[in-house]
Amino acid sequence: MSQTEDAPINWLPAFILIATPIAAITLIPWYALNHDFSTAAWVLMIGYLYANGLGITAGYHRLWAHRAYEAHWTVEVALMLFGGAAIQNSILNWASGHRTHHRFVDDVDKDPYSAKRGFWFSHMGWMLRNYPSSTPDYSNAPDLQKNKIVMFQHNHYLAIVLFMNIAVPVIFGFLVGDVWGTVLLMGLLRLVVSHHFTFFINSLAHMWGKQPYTDENTARDNFWLALLTYGEGYHNFHHIFQYDYRNGVKWWQFDPTKWLILSLSWLGLTKNLKRIPNFTIRKAELLMQFKRAQQQLEQKSSKLPSVDVEAMKQRFAKEYEAFVATMNDWGKLREEWYAEKKQTMMQKWEDAAFKTRFNEIDYRLKMQSKRVQLMMQQMMMPQVTAL
Predict the structure, then answer these.
(1) Direct distance between the N- and C-terminal alpha carbons of the chain, in angstroms, rounded to an integer
(2) How far apart are CA 315 and CA 372, in angstroms?
(3) For the chain, N or C: smaller number of CB within 10 Å?
(4) Are 31 and 148 within one domain?
């Protein structure tokens, strides 16, 4: 490694990340053998786990790190507090480091938690020592330094952490009549589970899953990780379209963070939700399909009759020509729109003629994507029949 592995130990994070799991696996079984955890304590643990998880995903990540939407100050305060409960550093430190991760993703020297340095390093090892790549650099976060709520949390981080992780569980424990049970579950177990669910995004989400949008980096889409991380598991999409407020862009994909942000917009508490156009997303998917198809065809070329291989190559070449033609039509339409807008100084995109032509181009991409998928499925069959 180009970065020294004997970097000085980062004592406070190291203590928290090592001591809390040890405490959890010793104290919680002991308490369960000698006492009964109340149902209320379990319910509070699950509810608080989701609350501080969404504080990270909807707050630290999509709101502050990527500015994917805007939120009312009351929502910002709530996300700031619940995110602080997760003990993953202040918003300023977290978001600034995450922006660095996106800028230098997979770079073993500059990415703070590069997956190319191994599972352990990207999961939590990067926090245990003061590696050069983790040195705070707030030059990429001037907007956050101007945010009063962000800076309040940054300047009073320890007090907020202690209040949210000790005072809040104790208060709720008194209210439900199970102080120690609530402290152990809502306070301790919730924190350990929350830590490692979040850390999976830096580690497993760069190692396990599919790459339907890009293979320019190690990020993967993984449904199972999305279940554990409130929608963050669709990481391949996120790394190519980081400013979209959604990670699970398909309607059927599990993304409670997206649903929360959207629901709050209906109440007027969030606004300016950024969305990558479906056309752009479909274009990225189709380019990856062509790339995968080419790779599969090369792999199977030695196992198929030459006539079948040549026929498939011709079909893919024809589809790619159609794709290029569609992109050219899209480019011409976009140029016309800009010219029209420049002349009239008005927003003409909603004009029926432009919208109809755009929808036609989008539909062509959609149908082509289905054809390419079918062709790839045919290639996976034992024998390919030329059509």
Answers:
(1) 52
(2) 9
(3) C
(4) yes
Q: Are residues 285 and 245 in the same domain?
A: no
Task: Report the percentage of the chain scoring pLDDT > 90.
Answer: 68
**Are residues 198 and 50 in contact, defined by beta-carbon separation less than 8 angstroms?**
no
- Both 115 and 219 in a single domain? yes
180: Cβ contacts below 8 Å, ≥ 6 apart = 31, 35, 173
> Which two three-digit tokens encode residue 37?
């955890």
Identify whether the C-beta of residue 255 lies closer than 8 Å to the C-beta of residue 229. no
* Contacts of 40 by beta carbon, 8 Å cutoff, 6+ apart: 176, 177, 178, 182
pLDDT at 293: 76
Interhelix angle 73-85/39-54, rounded to 10 degrees, is 120
Distance CA 131, CA 10 (A): 9
Q: Cα–Cα distance between 262 and 246 in angstroms, integer?
A: 9
pLDDT at 139: 95
User: Which structural domain range is residue 69 located in?
Assistant: 11-271
Cβ contact 296:380 at 8 Å: yes
Structural domain tally of the chain? 2
Query: Are residue 168 and residue 127 in the same domain, yes or no?
Result: yes
Structural domain contains residue 385:
no
Judged by DSSP in three states, 386 sits in: coil
How does DSSP classify residue 267? Answer: T
Q: Is 2 among the domain residues?
A: no
Name the token pair of 120: 């352990």
Identify the bridge partners of residue 271 per DSSP, sorted by sequence position. Answer: 70
H/E stretch holding 270 reads: strand 270-271
Beta-carbon contacts of 203 under 8 Å, excluding residues fewer than 6 positions away, are 113, 115, 119, 122, 123
**Range of weakest confidence among 40-49, 324-333, 337-346:** 337-346
62 has which bridge partners? Answer: none
User: Are residues 39 and 142 located together in one domain of the fold?
Assistant: yes
Q: Is residue 304 very low, low, confident or very high in pLDDT (cuts 50, 70, 90)?
A: low
DSSP string for 256-312: HHHHHHHHHHHTTSEE------HHHHHHHHHHHHHHHHHHHHHHHTTTS-HHHHHHH
